Amino acid sequence: MNLADCSSHSATARLLHFGSPGAIYLRRFVGSLHVGRCGSNPTHVKTLRLRSNPPKTLTVTAAMASEAEVAASAKIIDGKMVAKEIRDEITTEVSRMKDAIGVVPGLAVMLIGERKDSATYVRNKKKACESVGINSFEVRLPEDSAETEVLKFISDFNDDPAVHGILVQLPLPKHMNEQNILNAVSIEKDVDGFHPLNIGRLAMRGREPSFVPCTPKGCIELLHRYGFQIKGKKAVVIGRSNIVGMPAALLLQVLREDATVTIVHSRTQNPEQIVKEADIVISAVGQPDMVRGTWLKPGAVVIDVGINPVEDATCPRGYRLVGDVCYEEARKVVSAITPVPGGVGPMTIAMLLSNTLSSAKRIHNFQ
pTM of the prediction? Predict the structure, then answer.
């Protein structure tokens, strides 16, 4: 930046040029800086009062970033990077457990039907298990399978000592009762965290659930690992699904997080006004770009759970993935935001692996 000495009575202002290192050196040399406006164009002209003897006032005459440009440097919350760190930690622990007691954690995944997206999720989970050394067991059943057949496999996995976690890939075919099937999974192996007893314990202060649902757990883990304070902050969760919205709201309130939480849903009046008050926003509604930049409080932290395909002829697949939050608008307002893809998605699988490891440790009393 260029600094002009406003205290000089010379007809020609003396200009000093500083790049970023120079600006850092200036601060170290003169002490604290006070930034103020000078002239009619606050975007490009500002003043700095320096703690020197005698005091000097310098004018910044270089083209400075506008407020929008500064805000555009919102921190990207990199879910891929954090998920890799967690997988590395899990790999170390799985190896330590195997060496110490000869036990390898095992995850059983059940896929009923032929949905391509579900098949992709199951394939990714299997690869993730292999990458950290967790054994994976897979059952694929046709769309028209009887519910009793699914329940029989669950019962077998409940009794299998090599299996420490059971995951039934949702959604299920329409003729099956999802509640009956999820309730059949042993609470000790419910690594998805959907068993009603786990959700009930999550909702009660002083009770610890055996497992926390993976996606909400991943959202909170991102906030922790990036050092964002939750305690005492205003948080808004957009969406109230059993999979993400409700457990995310519970997590923010209990289990030592202590945020003040509001849930915004399809019947909420003036949702943008409520979201605007939030220091932390977690959105999980499955509506592309629903949350606009004008909804968000300057400096807020945004965790975008949504993964929504939108048509885009310029993409090889004919579509691209976007979140619930309009990313280009939001990043000019907020202090930090998760990208889509590459934000919450990788964390969901990382938390599934973490829950499976925790289950194996608990079952075998391994510290």
Answer: 0.79
